[in-house]
Each structure stands twice: as structure tokens, then as C-alpha cells.
ATP-dependent RNA helicase (Boothiomyces macroporosus), 437 residues
Amino acid sequence: MQLQNIANAGEWTGLNPTIKQTLLYHGYTQMTPVQASVIPLFLAYKDVVVEAVTGSGKTLSFVIPILEMLLRRYQQDRPLKKNEIGAVIISPTRELAQQIHKVMTPFIDALNEDENCIVKEGIRHLLFIGGNDTREDVKLFNEKGGQIVIGTPGRLDDLFKRSTIFNTKEVEVLVMDEADRLLDMGFEVQLTSIIRKIPKQRRTGLFSATMTEALTKLVKAGLRNPVKVQVKVQSNDGEMISEQKVPSTLEMFYLIAKPDEKIARLVSILKNNQEKKFIIYFATGACVDFFYKILKNIEGLKELSFHSLHGKMVTKKRELTFQKYSQGGAGSVLICTDIAARGLDLPDIDFVIQYDAPQDPKAFAHRCGRTARIGRGGQAVIMLNENESTYVEFLEIRKLSTKEYPDEGGVSKSNILMQIKDMVIGDRDIYDKVKAN
Ligand SMILES: Nc1ncnc2c1ncn2[C@@H]1O[C@H](COP(=O)(O)OP(=O)(O)OP(=O)(O)O)[C@@H](O)[C@H]1O
């Protein structure tokens, strides 16, 4: 595999004028470094394995080439028939798939509005994710087809197997976003099954901020002589670092607290930084439900607006929560599991708190990466119990965090515990959650 290390941004060149106009309209005046490297490679029909820091613009680096390659095939007089798919994008979570769909929408709208667009029947991108009715998915595709499909691996595999109306023989581009996560989540069987249905003569892209050894197998099975793109990050002292997974505009801290002090420290951070937008990670869905009920009722936090998100919630509720939190400003707090650790692009998050250390060490960087995106600043704190203090060494070795978060005070531990006790006694539902924890 060839290795390309890049650090510089660049001008948008050689793109369809409508696509370029849409980029400029959105204020994307220049390509980010990852885009400057990946777009030309993809357009030169190379397979790519892309490892670039969180929030560096990886999504557009595959969205743009997919659209350009689709237009190109129509220019070459190779249009797609109604039930033929030209590109498949696989994402590990429903939220991320929805986000990719949303990033692509303005480009497709602009192309469809352009009377000179070569795709006269219109370009359609369809979203196929778990939680929705598969019969609706089939109906939707059957009605008008879709040249680009975006989805979660289980649902895509299911649809491609279940119904012969999805013709994948013309797929030219396959993208696996957060590719390492797709494998970690145990989707290897579904990925292999999808890959088998797609022609070998395709372009494939694997994208993530963190790559693992396990991916080597997938790369060997699914990619042909790929170029590996690693985007270097400039550290504060000017050194170029390629192993860094998070941007240098991110300030990272840890704090060590006894179990009975931890919640008071959390309350103190929230109370003392009410002008910020937060995301807080917990280990399980039960913890999320519990802290959601508790935190919003704690004195001093009632002005904040809390939202909760985990995998056991139904899709509609997940969508609604995500939408409300995205629109919320200062004082919005998302309480969630690792379901919201990767890929989600919420540019105005100021503060990431990891109340529970992640089980998978790679999730650390992805969680932190929800803030400080595209040159903005941000802070991230990981809260550790005393018996987890070796985690600090792990962070130091990885050059991730060496600063201890100061105790901002203003909160009495015994008062917080008293409030929680009252809430637990008064609420059977919370009581059950406490027992479950
Ligand atoms: N060329 C550009 N100029 C300015 N902003 C951009 C550009 N490209 C993308 N962005 C913005 O940067 C933000 C991050 O992009 P994106 O979500 O693609 O990052 P990512 O690398 O996929 O991050 P993660 O690893 O967390 O998934 C988005 O808000 C996007 O709109």
C-alpha cells in the first residue's frame, strides 16, 4: 500500500460547476487537507484508506467524488437504469448515515435544479437504516430507484438479499465510513456479503480517524492496491504529527475522583460553564436514563436543557432528540452512550465530558473529537475513578492528555448526594435504574 502524508489545504479544481458553486455557497472556500488529497485520488480511480483526525472534513472527501463519478458515467453515455445503483455508502450507525445523507442533499438538489445537468431523470440518494420498515424501503426504491444508497450494514445487506429489485451490478464506488467501527461492531459478515454483490471493478474507500489491524483483512479482501492517506496535524509547538487522532485546537484534561465525589464534580463543571454546549458520555443506556432523570432536577442545573440518546431508544425518538440537541445553543447537554461517539458533526459543541472511561480505547479520540472541529477550539475532560488512574499513563503515552482538570468548586458533595437520595426515594423508576446500575 502506498502511503501519502499530507498537511496542506487546496483550491477546488476540476469539479462540476454546480458542485463547486454549492461548495462556495456553503462557505467551503478551500479544500481541507484530507479533501485535497482524497478527492483527486478517488477521481483518478484509486482505492483509498483514509486516516484523518476527527472533524477534518472526511465526509465531503467521498461525497464529492461519488457525485462527480456519477455525472461522469452519464457523460460517457453509461446512464443507470431505474433499479441500478451506482454508489453505496455504509455507516455503522443510523445517525451517521442520516448525517451523510444530509451532507449530500444540497449538492443533489442543486444538480437536479440545474437544467444543464446531464442526469435528466434526476439524481436520487436513498437512506436505508435499521429501525425503519423494510417494506417501505423496498417500496421507495421500487417507485423511482436511487443511484446512491446510504445505510447501515445490516439493513443494506438485508435489502440486497431480500429483494432482487436492488441491482448492484453497476456499483462503481463503495465507501465504508468509520470502517474500524464497522468491524468492531461485528458487521464483518454483512460487509462481506454486501461486497460480494458489488462488482470487483469498483473504487473503494475506507475512512476513519482511527484504523486498526483488523482492517488489514478487510483491505486485502475489498481493496485493490489502495493508497493510504494520513493527514498530519500540526501540534502547538509546530511539530507535524501523523499519529494524532484529534485536532490541536482541542484542550484535553483528566480528573480523578472517588466514586461518591464524581457526580459532584460533574455538577460543578456543568454549573460553572453554563454558557457552553456539552456532550456527556456514559457506559450504558441504563446510566444515560438514570443521569438524565437526576441531572435535570439538581439545583443549579435547572436552566440547562438536557437530552438523552442511546441505542435502546426507538429510531423516531433518537431522531427527535438529535434534532433538538443540534438546534440547541449554550446550556444544551446531550447525555449519551458511544452511539454518539463517532462521526456526528455538531459544530458548536464546546465541552466533551467522559463520565465513564470508554471500554474501547479508540473511542476516547472519537468522543473528544465531537468538539474542536474544523479549526475551532474545545475542551474535553475524562473523569476517572482512583482505580482507573493507570488510564492517565495511557493518555500520556498516546500524547492525548496530561493536564489535570482543576476543581472549580461551588458545589457541596453532601448536598448533591442528599438531593439524589430524595429523588431516588421519591421515584420508583429511578430507584429501579439505580438498582440496575
Ligand atoms: N472545505 C471545507 N471548508 C470548511 N468547512 C468544511 C469543509 N469541509 C467540511 N467542512 C465542515 O467541517 C465539519 C466536519 O466535517 P466532517 O463531519 O466531514 O468531519 P470528519 O473528518 O468526518 O469527522 P469525524 O472523524 O468526527 O467523523 C463539518 O461541519 C463540515 O461542514
User: Anything to note?
Assistant: The mean pLDDT is 87.
